[in-house]
Design goal:
By secondary structure, this protein is mainly beta. The protein contains three helices and 37 strands. The protein has four domains: about 100 residues, no CATH class; about 170 residues; about 150 residues, Single-stranded right-handed beta-helix, Pectin lyase-like (Pectate Lyase C-like), CATH 2.160.20; about 80 residues. It is elongated, with a radius of gyration of 32 Å.
Length: about 575
């Protein structure tokens, strides 16, 4: 490996070793040098001798050369400065330099950075940092996978981008940064371009902090996830990833998901934006106690038809602030999700359903807009019980304050339903305070379960229509078949659209028709004005009780078996 000391400053047009060492100051080293100088100056007044600025001084068992041993995890101090800088000279040679010594040099940014990481203090219990300050290119390779492997208490600061070469239709066997069975790992920033297999892979780690990550895959590369955080596929191992923070991700042209998790407890995600990807912007599997601020996806899914946001494989206690989706097969898909809330959705142009929810329990979708889908705006489905060893219903799903519409014209209006509930195991769901006007070309709201609540929606309910009351008749109007559910609790909203100036009044009630097994809606006069009266009506189902406790034990048991 070439050493940069063999080159003179005059021979280089890029960074020099002096410039690289000055980067320590930019990373906070200035204050560190000042603290060391101050220590030497203070001592010189007592001894009469001036110490060199870089001389090591014992400070109550903490060497000033290693202030990282002091617990300053939440304070920005000189102890959080860079320990090793990886930089490239004008000849394209990478160098790893510490504060006091040169570590290594070479043409491969991955190898040099790994050497820099390996040069950090062994068995430390404090954070130390390696910074990559010059752009690097990783040559195409189809052999064994390569990466920068991060042990515990390591921070990799990718201040400069890393590009991975590839062959068309293939990928380079590179995962830029990995951590396995480690704790306290940080990547505050990283930009990856080209065609690696993944940008970041975290397995069975705890206390992970990922900052601003940008992954710009080449559309001709066959890539996998951008960022994957998991338990290493080892379901028999109880160790999971825990306490993970991910600030922001921007990803383009990935072959799979932008961010995917499996087997993670306590996850915080700030914002994920994915553009033209072959999977989800965010896919959480078997993840608990997670918060996601915002997810934005443009044309997600690829041939597999993934949505912008998906929960699967028994996720529990997940809260999402906002989901924005444009195009793709679906905007949101929830499978075996429990105790989940989505604050706001903005979904336009899904090729199938805007939102699909199945075999999930205690889910709230509370606000937003869904429009111009080619299927349902929202589909709630309960699969037959014989497909599973346990009864896993789709129960206690609440959709509220959502505007669902298709504002296209004529044959272009292909959104079939605003809300459609199907399947034999969809129970006790609630659809309230939504606006479904022009929400479905077939029907705005269609619900299969007798136990679900439909009330106070603008534009539809269990049924809706217009009746004309004829004067001088004993029973002015009967509307047959407003509901097929004998157990349903029905209420009526009515408004006069056309009536006389004379006094009038009417009664309306529901009557069960045994032969048809349907509820009929019957109107009759109380005060007959002698003229016709036109009334618009909406039938609601507020339901007297909701009780899904019988399914809780099945959920817990099945989740344990799967996990």
């Amino acid at each position: 490996m070439a050493d940069s000391d063999s080159h003179t400053e005059g021979e280089r047009s890029g960074l020099t070793r002096r410039t690289a060492l000055e980067l320590f100051a930019l990373a906070g080293g200035t204050s560190l040098l000042a603290s060391r100088t101050g220590a030497g100056a203070g001592t010189s007044q007592q001894t009469g001798a001036v110490r060199p600025w870089n001389q090591d001084v014992d400070a109550q068992h903490h060497r000033l050369a290693n202030l990282g041993s002091i617990d300053v995890a939440h304070v920005h101090t000189p102890a959080r400065a860079t320990d090793v800088v990886v930089w490239k000279d004008a000849d394209g040679v990478f160098h790893a330099d510490g504060r006091d010594e040169h570590v290594t040099s070479g043409s491969d940014v991955l190898s040099v950075t790994q050497a820099a990481v390996d040069s950090l203090t062994p068995d430390r219990t404090w954070m130390e940092t390696v910074s990559i300050v010059s752009p690097g290119t990783v040559p195409y390779r189809d052999g064994s996978f390569r990466s920068i492997e991060l042990p515990s208490y390591t921070r990799l600061d990718g201040a400069a981008p890393i590009s991975c070469e590839f062959e068309d239709g293939d990928h380079s066997n590179v995962i830029v940064a990995t951590a396995t069975d480690a704790e306290h790992v940080e990547i505050p920033r990283l930009t990856v371009t080209g065609g690696p297999w993944m940008a970041v892979r975290i397995q069975r780690c705890s206390n992970v902090r990922l900052g601003e990550l940008t992954v710009l895959y080449d559309p001709e590369a066959d890539t996998n996830d951008g960022i994957r955080i998991d338990n290493g596929y080892d379901i028999g191992t109880p160790r999971r990833c825990t306490d993970v923070q991910l600030s922001t991700v921007y990803l383009e042209h990935g072959g799979h998901h932008a961010v995917e998790t499996y087997g993670v407890d306590r996850l915080q995600i700030g914002a994920v934006t994915a553009n033209e990807i072959g999977g989800c912007a965010v896919l959480l599997n078997q993840t608990t106690d997670a918060t996601v601020n915002s997810v934005i996806g443009r044309n997600p899914g690829g041939p597999a038809g993934y949505p912008t946001f998906r929960l699967a494989n028994f996720c529990t206690n997940v809260s999402v602030g906002q989901i924005v989706s444009r195009g793709g097969m679906k905007g949101v898909m929830l499978l075996t999700a429990r105790n989940t809330s989505i604050g706001d959705v903005n979904i336009v142009g899904a090729e199938d359903s805007g939102i699909f929810v199945s075999t999930s329990f205690n889910v709230v979708i509370n606000g937003g807009v869904i429009k111009n889908c080619n299927g349902e705006a929202i589909r709630i489905h309960g699969y037959p019980t014989h497909q599973f060893d346990y009864t896993l219903p789709t129960a206690n799903i609440t959709v509220a304050n959502v505007r669902m519409l298709d504002d296209r014209t004529g044959d272009d209006r292909t959104q079939t339903y605003a809300i459609r509930e199907t399947g034999p195991t969809a129970f006790s769901n609630q659809y309230v305070h939504n606006d479904v006007r022009t929400g479905g070309s077939v029907k705005p709201i269609a619900v299969s379960s007798a136990s679900s609540v439909i009330t106070d929606n603008v534009g539809d309910g269990e049924d809706r229509g217009t009746v004309t009351l004829t004067p001088n008749t004993e029973f002015p109007a009967r509307v047959p078949g407003v509901s097929p559910h004998k157990r349903a609790t029905l209420t009526l909203r009515e408004s006069v659209t056309d009536g006389p100036n004379a006094a009038f009044a009417w009664d309306a009630y529901f009557e069960w028709e045994p032969s048809a097994e349907m509820w009929d809606l019957v109107f009759e006069w109380r005060t007959d004005p002698g003229e016709t009266l036109t009334i618009d009506y909406i039938v609601d189902r507020p339901q007297a009780t909701l009780d899904t406790r019988e399914f809780e034990d099945n959920w817990d048991e099945f989740a344990r078996m799967e996990g």
